[in-house]
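Hi F.,

I've been meaning to write this up properly since the lab meeting, where we talked about keeping a consistent format for the predictions we share between groups. The idea is simple: the sequence comes first, exactly as it goes in, then the structure tokens exactly as they come out, then a line or two of notes. No screenshots and no reformatting. I'm using this chain as the first example so we have something concrete to point to.
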Amino acid sequence: MTSADPRTNPDNFCYRHPDRQSFVLCQRCLRTICPACQTPLPVGVICPECLAEQQKGARSAEVKRMPGRFARKLRSDRPVVTYAIVIVTIAVYLLQLIPVVGGTITGALAFAPAYVVPATGVPFEPWRMLTVAFVHSTPLPFHVALNMLALWALGRSLEPSLGKVRFLALYVLSAIGGSALVALIAPGTFVVGASGAVWGLLTSMLIIGRHLGVNILPIAILLGINLVFSFVGSGVSWQSHIGGGLVGLLVGYIFSKTRAQKRQGLQAALLVAVGIGLVAVAAIIPGLLYL
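Output, unedited:
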């Protein structure tokens, strides 16, 4: 119980300076503080100890909000997804060069339509429609070198424009699209390479560039040259190129029409539908046509 006389009441003296009388309380701990110990707040004042705790809490919250190194890279404009795909693909190619092991890796990741048509008796392995983009013909490095050079050149401009998640979705769906067309019109083919995925990047730039008002003539010329090479080059799966290119056009169109923030949910749903549809087409239609 406090004294009736405020001059003799110990609660009316600063808790840090008992000889200094005050009638001001800390806003947080409600202890009496003298003018020398007061730090003004928007409402009331605060004592030195509570101020230190508040600043410590603010620093901790700031540290928690600060993204880690990996998160900062993902949020940066660097095409880290492009670099990651290039690194993984080259690493797989180097493993392919190892005797015995290389053949096993190629056989486990390459694509043949039989792997997505259940009625063939071959194990159903639809993931090969994507993993085909990570293996290339050996031993000459021209195949993987040309694809990775094209990916590096396209990804450096396309990934920062689309964002990392959309760019990865475009690459994945284009690779699957290339495999889907192989399954539809070349059922006996065994294919390797990222050409379908790279073609998807190239054709999507036509749609996205057109939508943004960019001069797409150089892209169209490059696409035409690649189209000719696809049909005249020996050992080239033009079905994979065309399939990846068609899907790239479709995905680029989806991106251009669902740019608004309120349509991001629709965009994600459409991309998922495209992926499921490609696998379903590759699994069902060849069985009806050829089996």
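Notes:
Residues 74 and 268 are 19 Å apart (CA to CA).
The chain has a mean pLDDT of 83.

If this format works for you, I'll send the rest the same way.

G.
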